[in-house]
Amino acid sequence: MTAAYSQLAAHFGKVAALSNAVGILQWDSDVMMPKGAAETRAESMALLHVLRHGMVTDPRIGDWLDTADGDTGLGDWERANLREIRRSWTVETALPADLVEASSKAISASEMAWRQARADADFKALLPYLAEVLKLQREIGRAKGEKLGLSAYDALLNDYEPGGRSAKIDALFDDLADFLPGFIEEVLAVQARRPASPAPEGPFPVEAQRALGLQMMAALGYDFERGRLDISTHPFCGGADSDVRITTRYDETDFSRALMGVLHETGHALYEQGRPQAWLSQPVGHARGMSLHESQSLLVEMQACRSREFIGFAAPKMLEAFGGSGPAWQADVLWRRYTQVQRGLIRVDADEVTYPAHVILRYRIEKALIADEMPLSELPGVWNAQMRELLGVTPPDDRLGCLQDIHWPSGGWGYFPTYTLGAMTAAQIFDAACRAEPEILPGIGRGDFKPLVGWLRANIHGLGSLYETDELLTRATGRPLDAGVFKAHLKRRYMGE
Amino acid sequence: MTAAYSQLAAHFGKVAALSNAVGILQWDSDVMMPKGAAETRAESMALLHVLRHGMVTDPRIGDWLDTADGDTGLGDWERANLREIRRSWTVETALPADLVEASSKAISASEMAWRQARADADFKALLPYLAEVLKLQREIGRAKGEKLGLSAYDALLNDYEPGGRSAKIDALFDDLADFLPGFIEEVLAVQARRPASPAPEGPFPVEAQRALGLQMMAALGYDFERGRLDISTHPFCGGADSDVRITTRYDETDFSRALMGVLHETGHALYEQGRPQAWLSQPVGHARGMSLHESQSLLVEMQACRSREFIGFAAPKMLEAFGGSGPAWQADVLWRRYTQVQRGLIRVDADEVTYPAHVILRYRIEKALIADEMPLSELPGVWNAQMRELLGVTPPDDRLGCLQDIHWPSGGWGYFPTYTLGAMTAAQIFDAACRAEPEILPGIGRGDFKPLVGWLRANIHGLGSLYETDELLTRATGRPLDAGVFKAHLKRRYMGE
Predict the structure, then answer these.
(1) What would the pLDDT profile of A286-339 be if each residue is shown by its tens digit?
(2) pLDDT at res. A1
């Protein structure tokens, strides 16, 4: 191994140390920080982003890469590490430091403004902050796109989904947008004929919900020595290497939202906790893009934990946690509720059938906004019109409309499509896993996730970024991503086909 | 104003942004972090310390300082800011970066080892970690001392107490060590003749204790928009500018420990929250050394909140919080308990009469260890012998002996004497404040701390590091520190003199 490779590895070990600090501070901002500290924190975050930017654009990296590329003594992991370092180097050197700093500050301000604006259902209060974030995201996209030969939007997308292209996504999403409205009609008609599914009666105290969530996390194999469960307005999985923290929010009238949220974030966390330990701090040890990441949360939440098998295991645990009684707590009744399809307003509460419609709407809007094809001030109107078109519902206010998600205020432009790419990927992976390991579904029925998680560790989590997305998926499932298994899954679960 | 001064101010604004990040991460390590993240966190902390060291030793600082010193357009605050920057510059440039990094890593490892060793009362398990920290502290002290013309110990002390010298402290502490054993005897004899003071009967649920603590913090004027109250093994005040967080620990059999701990840390927090807002991120805006800091916590806890006036206000609040009944809840009885003197083992639980003995012991030991006049392996034996000599008690194990404090494992060598310097300073300041503002004590009796905190804001908190310690104290109280008022306070409160 050349000195150049070793220097790169040491350098990116330091980058990881800095990123881990940023991850914990970001978690703190969302979970712990008092309001009055926002400005001070924004200064810290901006500085750390600038320092990080300085490290990942260190001019020595280019020289080290060129030397290390000629190193014949490197193994597959080291080679893949070089590939990932070069990818990040190309993108990061596209950005001037003042743009990185301005963006970080604009995001901090806009996140704070969003919290208040969302509570007040006041889009106008957010508008100037969001406009600044959008303007800077557009600049970032253009700067990266120029270097990569991509449109501004594809350049932003590429950060979350390496190799992802909107032309491909357009085709997949247009197909789904054709399929879904009719399919939703059919499912709703079928479900209207099912027996009534009474809701378990609350209240469901936060402490009992938390205890149930922790129990389910433990069943899934979440490692509490390397993470935490807390509360935040917008649930997320974050933190640092060896410190993978998830959050949820509790509603005392409905425990299933927090529970399914916890299962979802646990799916993310299992991926993070299962990354290759020897490569944890190196780019090749990172999770392989956000659609893979979303696939792991949706695999756990949608594929595994809304299966009849899982509800059969979980129903008595729920009963025990809340001390309920009556038919609402029967597994069949609960399962019908957990697979209930509804035209709803809120993405994070959406069922897996309507969810892609929420994503397609956001994807189309953010693509238009980045391309400057639509004024930001029209966002609420466009949002509501597309909700009517795709889902047949109209938000009564912007809190339940375009203010519901933190992604845009926090600079996550190009992220949304990965949710639905993730749903398709989840279906394809879960299907392949169950074929390869017949013990998976019966295991889930007993609350034993070891067969599932073992397969995921070996075929997804433990591989980090060793392979490009298409190759990883082909090795795991036999082919690159298509929508076939996802549609088949929906038809099977919701139409009994 | 010269460009050089502006550049210094901008540069130290960035140093503050980095220090604030470190402060929050340190808080997280003590309050939130899961065990398995310790190594990863240590990497992050070490990196941030190295980055911070790089910033405060930036070679441009020396040039900027030399140019700015000749700037005739600067006001008093700017001049004092230059003085503080030069002080830090002199000290920080004394240390090579690898020593800073090694020390940071050794401290992280030793803090983790201490948590376990303390729980297990196992000094031997801590010994190798602590030896490494001591070795590096000695190196740090020597390197700084060489630059400042001080002994290694005085150089370490100087970081916490600018201008502090062990020769002065030796004199003060020897005097106290002569005074205390006899005084403690006398007080114990007097208290033995007092009527019995039954203890309030528990259990005292953590939630009720927390609510009472929050109520008292609010009465003191703690700003919850710029801070939090949480739980940690060793209570502290930390966090960042505009984000001043305190912690406590709860014992359900005795609420007074957590309550008095909260009041103590609130004293620290009021100082931090009251620093001059316009200078918050500049060295001149920092608190004026640790004995001043300790004076503010002890002023609140010992001078104000163990006064008969405060207990008169607090007794009905305590009764309400825990729903007790009987003579134990009478203000006179509670006050006798809050001024009860005991020969105890634990510093943080010690009363104000015996507390200085705990500090003198630590001061003498750490001075000997830094000077290499005593092997670290003999610490438990020496500790126990001095406890017998100064306090007449012997720890049954090291958990209740030399493992009780985090200071040494976390690299806080030279810090301990500031506690007792702080107690003397607190007495001197409180006495001057009450003379200048007669409404202070009656206010405390009504739970109205505005007269006290208003005076402290104007005479201590709001001045930051504008003046050197002696000048600050002379302006506030009429003279530099001596032990006279402290002794008079003890004689008045405990002997009725």
Answers:
(1) 999 999 999 999 999 999 999 999 999 999 999 999 998 899 999 999 999 999
(2) 66
Per DSSP, the three-state class of B237 is strand
CA B106 – CA B133 distance, rounded (Å): 6
Under a CB-based contact definition with an 8 Å cutoff, are residues A392 and A343 in contact? yes
What's B346's domain CATH number?
1.10.1370.30
On chain B, the residues whose CB falls within 8 A of the CB of A101 are none
A226 chain-B contacts, CB cut-off 8 A: 34, 36-37
| B112 and B211 both lie in a single domain | no
Q: What is the mean pLDDT of residues B375-394?
A: 95
B173 shares a domain with B152: no
pLDDT (tens digit per residue) in A460-476: 999 999 999 999 999 99
On whether both A179 and A145 belong to a single domain, the answer is: no
Angle at A490 between CA A318 and CA A209, to 5 degrees: 20
Residues B107 and B236 in one domain: no
Percentage of residues in chain A having pLDDT higher than 90: 92
**pLDDT over 70, % of chain B:** 100
Of B121, B141, B160, which residue constitutes the final position of a domain? B160
All residues of chain A having their beta carbon less than 8 Å from the beta carbon of residue B33 are: 243
> Looking at the complex, does the CB of residue B193 fall below 8 Å from at least one CB of chain A?
no
How far from the centroid of its chain's Cα atoms is residue B120's Cα? 26
Q: Which residues of B74-87 are buried (b: 16+ CB within 10 A; e: fewer)?
A: beebbbbbbbbbbb
Residue B226: DSSP 8-state: G
Note the ipTM here.
Answer: 0.90
Taking the CA of residue A346 and the nearest CA in chain B, the distance in Å comes to 30
Rounded Cα distance between A239 and A26, Å, is: 8
Q: Classify burial at A282, counting beta carbons within 10 Å of its beta carbon; exposed 0-12, middle 13-18, buried 19 or more.
A: buried
Residue A433 sits in the same domain as residue A349: yes
A4-8, A129-133, B93-97, B379-383 — which is least confidently predicted? B93-97
What chain B residue is nearest to A225 in terms of C-alpha separation? Answer: B36
B18: chain A residues, CB-CB within 8 Å: 44, 47-48
> What's the confidence (pLDDT) of residue A299?
98
> In angstroms, rounded to a whole number, what is the distance separating the alpha carbons of residues A367 and A374?
10
d(CA A412, CA A134): 10
Query: Which among B106, B127, B132 is positioned nearest to B116, based on CA atoms?
Result: B127
Question: Distance between CA atoms of B481 and B289, rounded to whole angstroms?
Answer: 14
Residue A152 shares a structural domain with residue A171: no
Searching chain A, which residue's CA lies closest to the CA of residue B22?
A21
> In angstroms, rounded to a whole number, what is the distance separating the alpha carbons of residues A262 and A246?
8
Mean pLDDT of chain A: 95
Residue A444: CB atoms within 10 Å:
25
Residue-number span of the structural domain to which A182 is assigned: 166-495
Q: DSSP label at B229?
A: E
Q: Which of B92, B161, B265, B301 is catalytic?
A: B265
Instruction: Give mean pLDDT, residues A111-138.
Output: 97
DSSP H or E run through B101: helix B97-120
pLDDT value of position A325: 87
Neighbours of A325 (CB within 10 A): 10
State yes or no: is A265 an active-site residue: yes
Tell me the residue ranges of DSSP E strands in A21-164.
Answer: none
Which of A20, A32, A35 lies at the smallest CB-CB distance from B225?
Answer: A35
Contact B335, B308 (CB under 8 A): yes
Number of domains making up chain A: 2
Residue A242: which of B37, B226, B240 has the nearest Cβ?
B37
Name which of B16, B33, B240 is nearest A243 (Cβ-Cβ): B33
The tokens for B459 are: 């005479």
Convert the pLDDT of each residue in A377-409 to its tens digit.
999 999 999 999 999 999 999 999 999 999 999
Do residues B371 and B449 both lie within one domain? yes
Q: Do B143 and B174 fall within a single domain?
A: no
Using the 3D structure, point to which of B112, B132, B160 is the last residue of a domain.
B160
